[in-house]
Amino acid sequence: MRIFDPHIHMTSRTTDDYERMYAAGVRAIVEPAFWLGQPRTSPGTFADYFDGLLGWEPYRAAQFGIVHHCTIALNPKESNDPRLRPVLDLLPRYLAKDRVVAVGEVGYDDVTPAEDEALARQLELAAEHGLPVLVHTPHRDKAAGTRRTLDVVRESGLPPERVLIDHLNEMTVGMVAESGCWMGFSVYPDTKMDEDRMVAILKDYGSDRMLVNSAADWGRSDPLKTRAVADAMLSSGFSDAEVETVLWDNPVAFYAQSGRLDLSDVKPGDTYAGNSIQRGAPRDR
Ligand SMILES: [Zn+2]
């Protein structure tokens, strides 16, 4: 079984996670730019973060046989800090880079005017750069937030097939299915979706335009939840081909719209900018 996790924040994870993910079948991931738990206070820290998503993290993933791409954006939560507005001006430089396969995560956190403005601007940037968009939906008042998100996406004129609306649940899946956008589900250990609810949604809505991710980050989360969904699908009667559609073909099809998805075999490099993930000389080499 091969798995593509279309939304995972590996910067917050360890090499043990990479090892376990590889053992579970994960061969490709996309790491969206997001917030880091503690608010940042200056645009320069975003440049360093984006550089890490394009440099050190793909290098680290490659050491474990996993292909890493990323999405770049000013996230909804931090777009409320006026000190960070210049990040929007940094984005064009990053959206031109080879391993950037979408604009994201954009969307709403608290649904403020500042979030409105950042979202609209970044949807424009996606159109200008010919990139798909990964849209986060708010955790509070999710139905209203998702409805509003879909309105804004519609007004932007972006084709729905280039937009992925993420963190959906039973309440919001229907309206996104109708919109023509792709549907993303984050499967967490004890909040939002779990694997059995995910399987029930796949039974109701089919596998078309459906993406499943672990959204693992610095909070309580599990990078193996993609595999847990695959196993739950198989034990409830889905075929190997249906599992492959949801956990590999769909994320590939969505991000391939960037024209930049490169899944040719990764070869672990020796070092990245002179640094390696080794601690001292490896044994028996
Ligand atoms: Zn995320």
UniProtKB/TrEMBL annotation:
UniProt keywords, alphabetically: Hydrolase, Metal-binding
Pfam families given in the database record: TatD_DNase
Source organism of this protein record: Sphaerisporangium album
Similarity field: Belongs to the metallo-dependent hydrolases superfamily.
InterPro entries: Metal_Hydrolase (IPR032466), TatD-like (IPR001130), UCP005295 (IPR012022)
Name recorded for this polypeptide: Hydrolase TatD
TM ranges: none
KW Amino-acid biosynthesis (keyword) present: no
GO MF annotation terms: hydrolase activity, acting on ester bonds; metal ion binding
